[in-house]
Amino acid sequence: MKPRISIIIPTFNRPEKLKRSLRSALSQSIQPDEIIVIDNGENPRTESSIKEVEENFSGPTIHYLRSKLFDIRQALATSIKAATGEWIILLDDDDYLVPDRIQNDIQQIEKVSEEVILLLQDFVRVDYTGKLIWEHLMQHKQMGLYQALTLDSFPPPPAGTWRASVIKERHSYDQANGGTDFDLYASCLPFGKIHKTGRIGYVMDDTRHCTRLTTSADHMLEMVDLHRIRFKESREYLKSDELKSTVDKRLDQQQAFFAAKLLGPHAFFDSNNSSICRQNLKETLKGIIAPLRKTFSSLLGGMLPEMRGSKSYSLKQFGQRHPGLSRLIKTSKLTEE
Asked: Tens digits of per-residue pLDDT, 196-209?
């Protein structure tokens, strides 16, 4: 019997991008059993956008829920509780799925053991303004509880398909603070294994904004502090004593990197970070030059490995590698809301 799959889309004042996400969910070669849109914004067009998509696509009913304004964590907690599928995809409203995402998930679900709680798809990030694409292949990244605790390597949640029983019981979105990416992985990974699918599953619209959460160094510094405190008990699930002892050391390195990314050379003189920056000079220097990454990628395109370990391409270069996906990306471009 086909496993039931729920797609959850939290949305915040982006009705046009939400429509694109919904169209990608309803255009799947095998449709989901359930789509939940959880709205924590205040745009009056959001609900009408959902109805517009429903009128043009057949498929499961889209369940529209409201959540507390500006509170993405409560929105996610509410929608995860409401989901009825055996597996859950958390899709951001500005991103979209490839047409065979659910088909690929089902093929993998039929193979994996009960120990697997997370299917990880490869993904691509697109900067439509800069006409750049980054290809992220999970097979080439080390990922486990250690990496989650130390804020290393993990992709955004839409790359994952979660076993519902685990994410419902273990997610940390009902706690008062935290992030929405590494926080989730660190909460759940002590209780199961990851399976990498080797397939591209979704497209992340990463057209750059200075306020975008994924580029927010001050947010990442908050996450470093949270992981030091909240996840001490999770270290007991690490198999190696050596790994346990290096968690704090790696968090120091992350603090130095993000402080330098946020403050530049002034991080050496900041009262909260100066000592750690001096003790982790290599990471501090990497943080100082990190803002130049976009410039280098724009100039060198496919020749320059991105700092996260993935390759960047121009739209033309990427089209030669993945013509079908390239067409999807080109036809999915939206104007900014």
From this structure: 999 999 999 988 65
